[in-house]
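Re: iron/sulfur cluster structure - here you go.
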Amino acid sequence: MSTIHSERSGARGRILEKLKAQVAGADYGKLPAEPSYAYPPMSRDAALARFTECLQANHAEVIEVSAETIPLAIERELVKRNISKLICGQKGKFSGSLESYFSRSDSEGIELVKYDFPLSDNKSRLFDEAPASFTHSRCSIAATGTIVLWPSEDEPRTLSLVPPLHFVLVDTHKMVSDFATLLKSEHWGAELPANVLLISGPSKTADIQQTLAYGAHGPKELVVLLLNNNTDKE
Amino acid sequence: MTVNIHHPAPSKHTAKAKNFRTSVERDLADEELRENFRGAMKFLSERRKSAFPDELELQTLREQCRLIKQRCLLKLPYLLEQLEDNLTRNGIQVHWAETTEEANSIIQRIISKREATRVVKGKSMVSEETELNAYLEKFGIECLEADMGEYIVQLAKEEPSHIIVPAIHKNKYQVADLFAKNIPGFEHTTDVDKLINEGRRVLRDKFKHADVGITGVNFAVAETGTLCLVENEGNGQMCTAVPNVHIAMTGIEKVVEWLDDVPPLLSLLTRSATGQAITTYFNMITKPRQPGEKDGPEEVHLVLLDNGRSQAFADEELRQTLQCIRCGACMNHCPVYKRIGGHAYGTVYPGPIGKIISPHMLGLDATKDLPTASSLCGACGEVCPVKIPIPKLLLRLRQESVKVAGPEETVMGGEGANRKTTEALIWQGWSAMHRHPALYRASMWLATRLHKFMPAKIGPWTSVRSAPHIAPKTLHELVAQRKNTRAKP
Ligand code: SF4
C-alpha cells in the first residue's frame, strides 16, 4: 500500500502543479454567462403521455394500475409468461400487499422471495433462481421516459438488474418534467446515496450491425406499473 | 510559463499511427469493410438528425455545453482537488497516473492485493488507451470485455474501430463466424437476437463470478464526488454492482463542477452519439457498499490519467481539445472516416477527435500524417456538441508539425516532425515571389515559356489525376494584349 501511495502522490503533485501554472491568472469572477434553453412547461396529462410514449418506444410495457390492483396486474403478467417466482424487498410501500396477496390460499401458485441475503455468497439465488423482480421507484422524468431508482438495503442495486423481467412501480404524482428540474427541486447536490440509477427501458444493444436487440445484460423486459390514482385531479 | 512536454512510452499504437498511409491503402481496398462503414455512418447520422428537431434548442444547448466545459477546464486543477476530497470523504480511493504505464500498474496492484484473477470490464476508451488488457494478462489476470461490441472485438483480437460502437466494422455474418470459432457449443446463426443472447449467456456467467469490475467514467462530479456512467446494455451496472471491487478509470478532463452541469451534457451526449433522448441506464456512483447493503462493491477506486492531456491544456487554443465528451458524432459525419474506417488511423481514438487528441498522447512525430488526413470540410466542427473548432485545431497541428523545431520543444512532443527542407524552400520561394512584383513577373514569364516541359507525372498527385497544363501566356499578358487590340480602331 505504501508504494502505491508514494507514487501516486508524486504524480498527483506534478499533474496539479502543471495545470495550476496554466490557470494562475484566471479571473473566475468574469466567466461568460451560460445560456439555457427554456423548455415549454408540460401539463400533467402531457407529461404522462410523453412519459408513456418514450417508454413504449424503448420497448417497455406500461400498465396502468391502482393501489389495489398492483398484485393482480403482476400476477397476470407472470402467468402470461409462465413464471412462478418473484423476488422483491420487504419494506417498500407495497411489499406488504404483495406478500398477503401471493400467500393467499387460492393464489396462482406464485412464490414470493425476499432479497434478504448478501449477494456475494448467494449469486445463484439471483442469477439462476430469480426470473422476475419487483421494485418501487423514487420518482420519474417525463421528457425522456425515465424511472429513478435509489437502491437501498431493502431494494439492492442488482434487484432491478439481474432478473430477466423487472416490474417497477411508478407513482405518477412524483413525476417531474426533466432531469435538470429534478436535481434542483430535490437538492440532489446536498447528499446522494451510494448509487442512483436512471432506467429508461429494458437493457438493449445495437452493437451488431446497428440491429436493436433487447436483453443484452440487464432485463429483457421492463414492465412499468403506472400508479395513476386520479383522486387529486380536479 | 514552463510546459512539460509529454514524451510517451512507445506503444503498439505509436508504431501503427506511423503506418497511416499504408493502412489507408489497405482499408480502402476492402469492399466489405467500406460497405459496413457506409451503412453504419448513414444510420448514425440520420439518428442524430432526428434527435434534434428544434434548431434553436440544439444551438442553445451547444453553446451552454461549450461554456460549461470551458468553465470546468479553467478550474480544472481545483475541481480535481475538490473531486478527490469529496470522493475520499465518500469512501472512494483516488489514484493519479501521469502515464499509461502508471495507470496500469496502479490497477494491477489493486487487483493483485485482493488476490483476484477474474476481471470484467465495461466499455472504457481510457483502458484502451493504456492497453490495460494486455498489461493485466502478463500478471495472469483475465480481463474480459463485457460490452457486446468490445467483447466481439476482443474475440477477434482486434481493437475498437469506433469509440461508441466498437465493432461497427463487422457485419452479422462476420460476428457469427467469430462466435462459431470461439464459443464452444454455439449453434451457428446470423439472427442478431440469437447472437446477442449467446453473448449474454457467456458474459452473465463471467459477471456472476467476477472479483473485480472495471469501467470508464462519463462525468465525474466535483460537487458531490459522484461518478456517472452512460450505457444501454447494463454491463456497466453489472461491473459496478456485482463484483466486490470496482475500479473506474478516466482522463483528468472528465470532471464537471456541479451536478447541475450534468443534464445538458448528458442530453447532448446521447443525442449526438446515437440519437437517443437518454440511454437505458444512467448510473451515478457516490459511495461503496454501505453498512446493511446486500450488494455493491466493498471497495471503489478512481484512477485519474493524464497521458498528454496536461500538455494540450498548456496551450489555450489546443486546450479546447479537452472539451470533448466522446460522443463520436465527429467521426459519424467525417467523409474521411466513413471511407477509411476506424482502424486505418492506428490510434485508439479514430476520426476527427483522434486527429486532434492523439498527437498529445503519442507525440506529433508518431502522428504527423493524421492532421493532414482531412479535407477541412468542417462537418466535424458543425456537429460537435461542445463546439470544438476541430478544423482550426487541425490547421494549428499542421503548423506545429512543420515549424522549425528549436533545441527545446515548446508546445508539444514531436513538433516540427513533418518539416521537409525542399517543401520549406519551395514555400519560401513562393512567398518571396509574391512579395516582389518584378520577381513574380519574371517567374511567370519563365514558367509559361517552359510550359511544354511540364512533366506528365508529378508524384502522388498524378496517381489518380492528370497533370495540370500551364498556359502558354500569363493572364497579365493576355489582358495587355486585349487592351492593345481594343485600342487600335
Ligand atoms: S470532438 Fe466533439 S463530436 Fe467529436 S467525439 Fe468529441 S465531443 Fe463528440
